[in-house]
Amino acid sequence: GGRRPPAGGLAVRADLTGADSGMRRPTVSRGFSLLEVLVALSIMAFSLAALYHAAGGGARGVGESEARTRALALASSLLDAHATVPPGGTEESGEDAGLRWRLSTRPHPTGREAAPGWPLYRVEAVVSWGEGAAAREVRLASLLPERRTAVARAR
């Protein structure tokens, strides 16, 4: 039949593998072996490390996305602030909220440089952030006409 374990919670079972199969030696089942516990702890440690790495990567991605969005907004506003380019071009630079920016111009060839008209300039806004291996930048460019001076309009 069905024997119940003693009141202490330890199960007793008969071991019939001895030399004298007529003798019974009681053995006590004590739970998990040391090896089983070590394997379980190793699995748990690897799982927690993977979870930590995934959560940290997500937070870094959000921070990088926010910095890129701020840089694009700054570069766009730098281009929008200039409707025309002064004769001879311009070079400007500065820093805003941890973002370094540079606005530069250079003449843009149209194939009609000898003909009278409005010369075009390639205007490029470069915004960078971070240092060393973590340095990032965004570049936006546009074509803008040269600003007409009062003397040029009178002609």
Short description:
The chain is an alpha+beta fold. The chain has helices spanning 34-80, 150-154, and strands spanning 12-15, 25-28, 91-96, 99-107, 120-129, 136-145.
The tally of helices reads 2
Can you tell me the overall shape? rod-shaped
Q: In percent, how much strand structure appears in the residues? A: 25-35%
Main sheet? 4 strands, antiparallel
Helix content: 25-40%
Strand order of the largest sheet: 3-4-5-6
Number of strands: 6
Distance between the termini: 119 Å
Core attributes:
alpha+beta, two-stranded antiparallel sheet, 2 helices, rod-shaped
Architecture overview:
There is one protein chain. The chain is 34% helix and 28% strand. It contains 2 helices and 6 strands, in the order E-E-H-E-E-E-E-H. The strands form 2 sheets. A 4-stranded antiparallel β-sheet has the order 3-4-5-6. Strand 3 and strand 4 form a beta hairpin. The longest helix has 47 residues. The protein starts with 11 loop residues before the first strand and ends with a helix.
